[in-house]
Amino acid sequence: MANATQTFRLGPDGEQVQLEAFYDCNAEQQVIYWDDISREFPTVHRVKNGNTRVSFARNKQRQWCDPPCIRLYPGVVLEVVPGSHATLDSSSLVNASLAEASEHDSIEDNASRLNLEPLAIVDTVTAPSILSSTAVSPAVKDTALATAAPPSYHILQRTQLTLQKSSAQLVQYEQSTQAGQVIQADTFKRGMQTMQDIRGDILALRTEVAKNDELKELQQTILTLQAAADAQTKRMEEMHQQSVELQERSLRMQQSALDRLALIQNKVAAILTQNYELHEYPIPRLFIVLPKEGTTRTETLSRGVRNLFAKQFKLYFLCECGDHTKPVDGRAQNPNLKHEIHLARHEGYDIDRPTEFFEKYGSYILTLLQMLKYGVTIAGVIVPPLGQLKIIDDLKDTAEGIDHVLKDIGSRVNSSIAYIEGLSGVQSQLSLPDPNASSTDSTTLGGLGALEGADLRQLESFLNSSDEGRVLGNLYRIFTLEGHVKWVCLDHYRENYRAEAAQDLWDVVQEVGGQYNETTGHVDTYLDSPIAARRFYSVLGSSRSVQSLFIQFRWVPSMQDLRDLQDTIKLTNICSLQLGSTGSGPLLPDVLNFSRRSDPILQMMSGGKIRTCDLRYWRGFLDRINNIPTTLSIQQLTLELSHKSPKTILRLISILQASPLLTELTCWCSEVDLVLDPIMAALENNKRTLALKLDVYVNDVSGRVNDLSWTRVEIEAGTSRILSIDLRVNTLEGTMLLYHPSVRNIHFMYIQKLPILLDALRRCLQVNTGLESVNVSCSTTDHLCLRLPEFQGLFTKYPHQIPRFRLAIGESVFMTSNIQDVDTGHLKLAINNSDIAAGYLSNIPNSCTVKVRALNLDSETTSDNINALLRFLDARPVQPRFKILKISLNAHSSPIILASIHEALQKYRVLQDSYIRVELNDVASGPLFASAHKREWSLLQDYANCIDLFGKLPLPPQSTSMETLIWSCRRLKRLQLVELHPPTEQEFWWILAMIRRVYSCSSFPTNSKSIVEPTRLRELVLKNCHLSHVQWRQLVDAIDILTLGFVYIEDLEGFSGSLLTVLVDRCISTAKELSALAESSEIFQDPFAIENLRDREQKNFQIILLQTSVEDAHIMKEEARLKAHNIGWVKIK
Fold it and tell me: Which of 174, 546, 739, 780 is buried deepest, with most CB atoms within 10 A?
């Protein structure tokens, strides 16, 4: 049987030649040997099957078959691609080969723009030695030229030169890989194909050498070249794997960066698209924080201990301009004004307590900084990237002091971002969301949401602001056409609201005795007559700056008056309306419209603009409406129900059913059930798509609002089911809501009959399953320690109820997060010696945390009382904290009690650390002062913080042994002298020594001995001390303005206006000394000076004058002097 044949042709149009195929055992298939092909086509370089290059056949081990061959392609004409002719010189041969091998050499990497030469890879380590060892000697070269077949010689030359040239390319490739540059996969594919060609050439050489004995000497060179090619192939595969891993890592990093950027954009979108209503948006919400430069020494000292070394920042608000600030009519007053978010026109605010500030607002600020850095466009709001921000051009009139912020804002933004990301807890909140998290968690945006109204209100407490009467950042509040609140700068504010109309509004509001807050757009006005109302309406209709309006009619307005108001509001941007009337009696000309007089108010609610309407001061509204529109756009409504009438209730229900957007309804009525029962019955038949919050206040007998009785009911959207009920009641009668299973929070206020309260609470616990908190405030005379076990025993019977619990009786308060575990509670206790004698301390749980607000030991205290207190302290595993310890002694007090108190103070540090107030009432006239030992009176010297002296001073004329005893109290901060008898010279010098707190011969009799200098007084109270004018002057001169914080003077005859002037003069001179001290470098070397300066700058010096001869006009004059000297820490009342 004849063997199969394979058809070949030279080039695309050459003559076809058939070569016989043979079965090869190694290849295990029919093949055509390369020797046969090269004999028929001497210039053969490779073989193609169409556009596909034909490779050499391989065995099972995927190695080249020996001798070289290609597999059979039945019925296919294979094209022979010729190489260079034998007569060409070697350089031409090599160039032609390289040119053909580099058809797709130039590979451009998108990341690095790296151009690679043909990837004929050579091992950079072994290549030099291999190439040098395989270089053909001249003799061998001549022999090869003379005897070797020309194709074989050319293949050898091409292989050597290709390997040699590829070594340089390999070095460049390795350097690129080490630098992190990613090479495309096609480059490796072509490189591997080049290596395959080289190995094919080597096999052809080996076949040629095996047939020619004269070329046996080149066989070793060929084998060496083959080993080098194999090594380079292996190395190339390893480097290809490294490149694949590098590319995958680069893709992961790129995807992570894209995901992070998308997360930032989502957070920014959540903030910018968050819509706020009027009551939720008290101050601007967009702001950034940048590092502060150039801090003065005074500012450094005023930071406080915690923030003394903290990095300082300034807060800058942003203008919320956008499509909503563009003129509605399209006629721009300033064509160059851009409506893009930018810094407000303000020099910024220093941040007090920056550590605490960043703990609360760090994540929110980080998002806004990244928004400013990268830029965003969403929902008509444009924030240009930081590089394109043109703040200086837009704000030509920027206040002095902000220019430096704008010039280097890029670096400062980056610095702030780096600082905040470095804080613990902030970076974690910006991590990518968990893909396995539920969809309901997506709204949290990685732990960050838009700020609530409460957060915004707290923000102002962190700012060191001197903007009295102005809104933060010099921003103005506006309302969009959709009724949402925005804060914009003056330029964008005036772009919508004409200056002429604003001035007219100012004038007319002042005419009617009202108030206009331009920054918030709120107007309060009181109209006396229809004529004044029409004048006000004419100006109001041409002003678009008013968003919130309160009108008090001082007559009973007619239906036409309200229609005039309705027509005016249609022309404005008012979205919040509050109406009231103080008139009485019907208008005779309008008597026919009595039953429908308030219909225009309903028409205002249906116009689409009014979102909030407050009619709490519009009595009889529901009695004077007739035609209720089918749809009302109101969202928050406040009404007053003066009496219970079926018709009135039906109208209220009709308004509720016609208000699909209503979310908050507030009613004032005489009974809670009057409103709640019919509303719930109506909602059963008409389900609402929005949740409803219903607040009901109960009027007292006179019809005034009773804040002590209040109910809040939250109704679920869709089902109209009651979700929760919060109650605040001061009576246990009149409502059955207390026993509703949806009650969540209860506050009993001023309950006097505790047994009735306990019974009502028991009934509530029987039907309720989700009680969250119980707050009880009692006005009973019982002590809390006596009643607490009763409440604890009640809740023990219902173990499934674990609400928060608070019990307040008198000045004592008990709180716990779980009433079933009172040992985890906190007790703030006010107790006296009578309570101790009654054994109330034994009712306090041992593990409960106790803080004694006040421990009063009056003149009736006995030694048994003190011993009972000591036993209580001994039994506590954790010592309670004592805030105030008041000790009252009079002339009849026993010296033994003084010794017992002194012993308790020495034994317990918690008593020593309290504010110890000692009251001495005429002790100088009794035996206590004379008989007590100096050791016992040392409780005053060592522990007393406050001494109140009533009556005669404890300075016996005949004895000087105790005259400096009280003066030497080391911890004394407050001294109160009340109703003292006209002091003798010795007693007055004693008073001056107490005030000065410095012992010297000029302030005390010469026969007194020096005592260790005590602390300075913080508070001085003088009531009816009967001093002369000269003595008052000496006393004023003795006051230490630097350390004293409070002076209370009550003396109708002695203290005059001239003495106040002297005191103010001393304040002014002290302020000048402080200013000079703050600028002196010596302050940093004196820790006491630093402490005094910080105390004076952070605390006020209050001068309280009561029942003195100083006139109010004189006080106002002295206040003006203080203000002129910019002294804000001195207050005169």
Answer: 546
